[in-house]
Every structure is written in structure tokens, then in C-alpha cells.
Amino acid sequence: MNKTLFEKIWQHHLVQELDDGAALIYIDRVFLHERTGSIALKSLEADNREVVSPEHVFCTMDHIVDTLVGRDDNTKVPSGKNFILATREACIDANIKLFDVNDPQQGIVHVVSPELGIVQPGATLVCPDSHTCSQGALGALAWGIGSSEAEHALATKTLRVSKPKTMKVNFNGQLGFGVTAKDMILHLIGKYSAAGGAGYVIEFGGTAVDALDIEGRLTLCNMAVEFSAFTGLVAPDNKAVAYLEGREYAPKGALWEQAVIFWQSLYSDEHAQFDKTIDVDCADISPTITWGNSPQHACAVDSRVPHAPIDATQNQLKALNRAYEYMDLPAGSALKGLPIGAAFIGSCTNSRISDLRLAAKVLKGRKVADNVNAICVPGSTTVKRQAEAEGLDKIFIAAGFEWREAGCSMCFFAGGESFGYRQRVVTSTNRNFESRQGPETRSHLASPATVAASAVAGCIADVREYL
Ligand SMILES: CC(C)[C@H](C(=O)O)[C@@H](O)C(=O)O
Ligand code: SF4
């Protein structure tokens, strides 16, 4: 007894302890995408190995696929089409379920998997993509791997894993007005650094996490990897059960009843020991935005770019000076009111229906400022259709947003499109690394509500003034 949720899932999947402290872990599901999945499948084929259990493998076109309306297999990025064609062919050969370019269920892997009930509480799921941690929101052990590990998982349904330490992060109290799951995770990383979770699997809990809906928990877990964690997860509760019921790949009938009973055993026991615990008081969290070139450069939207701490090391000083220079924002600059050139709502962090509803609430009856290139890319075709059924597309378009097809799009320059040289972008994505959204783009990570408010204002804005 007295096990953490992670320990329970680990024990259920332990095939064998290995000599060096690592373990062989059983893998329930593998999800692939055209950027890295095609490489794993091709290499498996070259080695004359087979996908051992194709019914547990899924693949989607999200990273390179174009998101312009009327798209086909052609892409903005040279050679992108080859990835799409190779992925399609490999999935057909291996008999893998593919959510192809114009499939009604296509979308970003971490949006599609929960949406279709492919990820489930207590399961292990891997994908050669770092934001697989998102899917821990449903109480699964889901983590990002490399292409060669994906090959191993495809061929053997197992993976060699070094056991992570355990961390509990409690978000206590209630979220303030205008504060979302995105602000929670940016605040955490801003306070404890982008390396704060290194070596740990993090269970998120506390009253504010209990109060989040599943989509908010997906956003929270999405950025566990930006905290350097092995992955993040949330214990499945009644909301998780209700969320999964009736979804296409969720169990049905008697299997559903059995699954729910099992899922109800998935929580950390009262006296379970974590290697580390962090308590966050939600009263301290404001709408949060990043100012620099790392997700740890996060601060309240109504604050100023921080000065280097007096005890900063030479390396820290160097990194801070680079961030000030790259972002063209000296220490002490106010964030609110800083003019922007673009606004992006999308990505596996914040492109679900609740994100679009929230942004539409801000945009309704308002117009995007002149000179702001505003783009909304729904996370999946299902989200897009749902938004259209609710009339949200009309609100986005009337405000001056471009309304796109689903995919990773401009979260990641690999899609071949960019916001332009040194453009300042307020973005609902998860990475603000240098040139992430195009050559020397200056990305400010924030919630979709803050992105919408900033698009309207033409500068970084405090969403509380727009709700
Ligand atoms: C291309 C892919 C491997 C990459 C990742 O692993 O995260 C991408 O999704 C990203 O967000 O940078
Ligand atoms: S939306 Fe962005 S962060 Fe998410 S998987 Fe795609 S490229 Fe990676």
C-alpha cells in the first residue's frame, strides 16, 4: 500500500527489472506523426522487423501538413510532401490506423488521442514527440520518446525506461479572474525554472487542478516537458470518466464497466511518499506571459521584464543578457502595451474547443488591430467542425483572424510558414525558443485569452480588461 499513482501504473506495466536500474516496461499504445513516425516505420522495415501489434498503433498528419484551406499533400516546406507520402505508404504496409490529411478525425496527435479516447487512465502511451506528456491529463503514463525508441516499442511492445523520481505539484486555492491552466504552468516554470522538474514524473493535484476540466488539465500537462519533467499526470476522477464515455476508442459495454472500476483505483494513496513536493498558492497567479527566449522567462502580464538577480552566476547573466537582446526588451521594460505584429491561437497546448470558446468570448464584437497578423488553427478537424457548429469561426473571422485547417502549423517553423523576420508574436503555444516560429521571431507565450486580447489591443494586453 501507500503507492503513488505513478508507482501503481509502473508496477502494472513492469515486465522486468534490468541490471542497471532501468526497467523493461510494457507499452499499451504507440502514436506516430508524419515528422518522426515515418522515420521509425521506415527504419523498422529496413531492419526486416514488423509492427507487432498494429491495432495498438495510431498515426496522424500534423507537423508538416499545410493548414491553409484547400490543402492537399503539397507543403510549404521543401521535402514535406515526401514525409506525407512515406508515412501514408508505411501505415498502409503496416496496417496502422492513419488520420490522413483530409480525414475528418485528423489533427495534432495530443489533441486527437484524448478526443478519440485512445489514451486511457492507467495505460502507457508513447509517441516520438516531446509533448506526449499532455496526455497524462487523463491519468495515463504518457511520454515522449525518440524515433529509435519508437522502433523498439513498435517491434516489441516494450521499452527500456530509467525510473524517474516522483514529484507532487499542488495548486492550492482557486484561480483568479482571467487566469487559466496555461497561466498555472507558466507561473510554475517561471518560479522554479525550466529545469525544475528534471528527473521527475510529476503528479499535478490540489483544489485548482481538481476544479480544472480535462482540457485545462491537458494544457497543464502539455508543458511538463518545458519544466524538464519525464512527464506529468493527473489522477483520473469522475470528470475523466465522463470525458471518455462514448468516445470512439474507449471501452464499451461490460468492458467499460470493468474499466471504470479499475480507473477508480488509480490515485496516490493517502500516505504515499513523493521524492519532492511543491505547493503553489493560486492567489499568486496572474495572467502570465513570457518575455524572453525560454518558457522560464514568465511573469505576470502587468509586471516588467525582470532584472538579473544580484546572486546570478556568469552563465545566468549571459543567458539573461542574450534574452534581453534577442527579444529587444531591456530589463525593466513594461510588457503590457508592447506593440505586436502577430497573434497565434493553436498548438497542442491551447487549440481545443474550450480554448477557442474562451478566445471567441474576448473577440466577440471586437476587431483585431491594424498591422496584427492574427491566425487561429484548431487542434483537430473535430475541434474545427465543433467550433463551426457553434459559430465560433464567424466570430474569429469577423474579428479579423484567419481560420485554418487543423495541424501544428506556425507553432513550429518546420511547417515552412513563418510570421516574418523578428516579428513579435503573442502565441498560445508552448515554446518561445529562438526562431521557433520563423527567423528570429520573438514569441511571447500566453493563454488563448491573452492572445485574443492582445490581438485586439495591437499590443500585449491584460485579458482581465477584456472579459
Ligand atoms: C518535431 C517533433 C519531434 C517536436 C517534438 O518532439 O516536440 C515538435 O513537436 C516540437 O514541438 O518541437
Ligand atoms: S503543436 Fe507544436 S508543440 Fe505541439 S506537437 Fe505540434 S509542433 Fe510540437
Automatic annotation (TrEMBL):
Heterodimer of LeuC and LeuD. GO terms for biological process: L-leucine biosynthetic process. Residues 7-458 form the Aconitase/3-isopropylmalate dehydratase large subunit alpha/beta/alpha domain. The lineage of its organism: Bacteria, Pseudomonadati, Pseudomonadota, Gammaproteobacteria, Alteromonadales. Its EC number is 4.2.1.33. This is 3-isopropylmalate dehydratase. The keyword Iron-sulfur applies. It comes from the Bacteria. Its cofactor is [4Fe-4S] cluster. Catalyzes the isomerization between 2-isopropylmalate and 3-isopropylmalate, via the formation of 2-isopropylmaleate. InterPro entries: 3-IsopropMal_deHydase_lsu, Acnase/IPM_dHydase_lsu_aba_1/3, Acoase/IPM_deHydtase_lsu_aba, Aconitase_4Fe-4S_BS, Aconitase_4Fe-4S_dom, IPM_dehydratase_rel_enz. It is an enzyme of class 4 (lyase). It catalyses: (2R,3S)-3-isopropylmalate = (2S)-2-isopropylmalate. Pathway: Amino-acid biosynthesis; L-leucine biosynthesis; L-leucine from 3-methyl-2-oxobutanoate: step 2/4. Keywords: 4Fe-4S, Amino-acid biosynthesis, Branched-chain amino acid biosynthesis, Iron, Iron-sulfur, Leucine biosynthesis, Lyase, Metal-binding. It comes from Paraglaciecola mesophila. One of its GO terms (molecular function) is 4 iron, 4 sulfur cluster binding.
